[in-house]
């Protein structure tokens, strides 16, 4: 039996795919991750730590010649890190005096008698040769729904290509009147599983409040009331960590969770799934 728990998001759509082990008759985590459906591809740092023989793999901030680096490892490259005043859009709007100041500040060679167009060209050329290129972040609120839907389809196709059947797809229900965009994405997720080759036996919307319930070992839930958004996120992370460290079936995910920079969203999808399993006595 497989259960896919989804916490709806745009830049941080979290999911946890549980798979029931036949031998132990208990659920284990098969896949657990965050998906960014704002853009078709998210690049990660390719820096290799030679001592540990591992790839950094953190979200990249800069790139050069098809190689991507996080901020920390960008500083270790033989290229300079560009500042805000070195953005092409900024440079192209400046007058001669400001362009000369920029060239002097960053030791960029230029002809003192050059016209504005030639000064800009000199700065652009130096940026291409000696600076890393910043990876532009995407504003989630400005990405159109068609792009989001297309990205969701492509990424889900890759993530769940090996899944023929998912017995339960549970999705956090979006009920806020100001969350119409998120409600639309919720519908896109449902439509994906209706139309894809994956046989989703049951698709259900579940209340976000279920993530707040403290899941005890015997399957009983105690609703936690009157807490702030920040407290709820902190409590979710703590509860998730408690479960994956104390229950042997989840121990292999402890290091992964501790190193992840979006623990709150991972915890939400995990706890939602755990609540569902206990609530349905699966």
TrEMBL record:
SUPFAM superfamilies documented for this protein: Ribonuclease H-like
Molecular function GO terms recorded: nucleic acid binding
InterPro entries attached to this UniProt entry: RNaseH-like_sf (IPR012337), RNaseH_sf (IPR036397), Ydc2_cat (IPR015242)
Domain Mitochondrial resolvase Ydc2 catalytic, chain residue ranges per copy: 3-65
Name of this protein: Mitochondrial resolvase Ydc2 catalytic domain-containing protein
Species the sequence originates in: viral metagenome
């Amino acid at each position: 039996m497989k259960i896919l728990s989804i916490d709806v998001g745009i830049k941080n759509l979290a999911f946890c795919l549980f798979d029931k082990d036949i031998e132990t008759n208990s659920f284990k985590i098969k896949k657990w991750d965050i998906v960014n459906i704002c853009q078709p591809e998210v690049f990660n740092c390719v820096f290799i730590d030679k001592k540990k023989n591992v790839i950094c793999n953190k979200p990249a901030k800069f790139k050069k010649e098809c190689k991507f680096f996080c901020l920390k490892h960008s500083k270790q490259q033989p290229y300079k890190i560009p500042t805000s005043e070195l953005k092409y859009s900024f440079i192209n709007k400046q007058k001669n005096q400001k362009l000369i100041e920029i060239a002097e500040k960053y030791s960029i060679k230029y002809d003192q008698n050059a016209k504005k167009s030639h000064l800009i060209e000199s700065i652009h050329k130096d940026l291409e040769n000696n600076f890393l290129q910043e990876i532009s972040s995407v504003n989630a609120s400005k990405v159109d729904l068609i792009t989001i839907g297309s990205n969701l389809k492509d990424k889900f196709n890759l993530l769940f290509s090996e899944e023929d059947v998912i017995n339960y797809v549970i999705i956090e229900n979006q009920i806020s009147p100001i969350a119409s965009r998120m409600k639309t994405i919720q519908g896109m997720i449902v439509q994906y599983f209706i139309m894809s080759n994956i046989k989703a036996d049951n698709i259900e919307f579940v209340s976000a409040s279920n993530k707040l319930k403290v899941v005890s070992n015997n399957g009983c839930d105690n609703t936690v009331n009157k807490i702030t958004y920040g407290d709820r996120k902190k409590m979710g992370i703590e509860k998730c960590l408690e479960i994956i460290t104390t229950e042997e079936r989840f121990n292999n995910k402890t290091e992964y969770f501790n190193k992840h920079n979006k623990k709150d969203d991972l915890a939400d999808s995990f706890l939602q799934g755990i609540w569902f399993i206990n609530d349905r006595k699966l």
